[in-house]
Specification:
Radius of gyration: 25 Å
Distance between the termini: 60 Å
Number of strands: 5
Order of helices and strands: HHHHHHEEEHHEE
């Protein structure tokens, strides 16, 4: 069964502007009422869960997510470098797209959402697109700074673990832990080393959209870049996944270590 959300999909620009304008009072109410904003957030999460299955929204889904994040940052007073009129327009567009979520079935209809995509495109074309790009740049800088700070914290923790020993290598395991090679003896190769397993801060990294193994490897290389490790005679080695451990196994004679509780 195919259910259309709205019967008309070939909207003129004037009709789209009118549809957007009709939601502005509601947008202002939500911005000024914490309880209404919290209820809107619940609707947004429900909508987002289903939106990926709506083909036509695929062209603007990333913009919808960024628009929501911008409004949330504004409500929390984390980001206010944007005119109030722009915030209202963005929230009005989101309300227009999300408002009928209660009527969207679990099996998403294929048609009936062309006007939603058009409203998002319209509001971005009315100057709000520039505001959104500024916010994305701010968001990216904030994320980069947070990642760097976390890299430094993990580096300090590894330094404390090493004590006066040299670092041989950092190896990412399949269970998302990090094997730290602490080199005990550098007189003869392969260098005698104790290996410790350290938990990677996966939960925090995922909040920063670092979720894949290659993301974790890049993070560990950031730890190496931002930490003044004393390295073994082998020299500085990039972090690798344990699947490629054979690249380093000839350098180190390892035994498992146990961290003090």
């Amino acid at each position: 069964m195919i259910i259309t959300k709205r019967f008309k999909t070939n909207f003129t620009e004037e009709e789209l502007k009118n549809a957007l304008f009709a939601k502005k009072d509601q947008a202002e109410e939500i911005l000024n009422d914490t309880n209404k904003w919290e209820k809107f957030k619940v609707k947004y999460e429900t909508f987002l869960h289903k939106a990926y299955d709506i083909p036509v929204l695929g062209t603007v889904i990333d913009d919808i997510i960024s628009m929501y994040q911008l409004v949330e940052s504004y409500v929390k007073r984390e980001y206010t470098d944007i005119p109030l009129t722009s915030i209202i327009s963005i929230l009005a567009a989101l309300i227009y797209v999300i408002s009928p979520i209660d009527f969207i079935p679990d099996f998403i209809p294929v048609i009936g959402y062309l006007d939603d995509a058009a409203v998002v495109t319209l509001v971005l074309g009315l100057g709000v697109g520039h505001d959104l790009e500024k916010y994305k740049s701010w968001q990216e800088k904030l994320r980069d700074n947070a990642i760097k700070e976390l890299e430094e914290q993990v580096g300090e923790a590894i330094l404390e673990l090493l004590d006066d020993r040299a670092l041989g290598a950092l190896i990412l395991s399949k269970d998302e832990t990090v094997r730290v090679y602490a080199v005990e003896d550098i007189d003869e190769e392969p260098y005698r080393s104790t290996v410790y397993s350290v938990n990677l801060p996966v939960t925090i990294l995922k909040k920063m959209y670092l979720e894949k193994e290659e993301d974790y490897i890049a993070f560990l290389n950031g730890v190496i870049e931002n930490t003044d490790f004393e390295w073994s005679p082998v020299g500085r080695l990039d972090a690798i996944h344990e699947a490629f451990i054979h690249r380093y196994e000839n350098y180190f004679d390892v035994e498992e270590g146990v961290l003090d509780e």
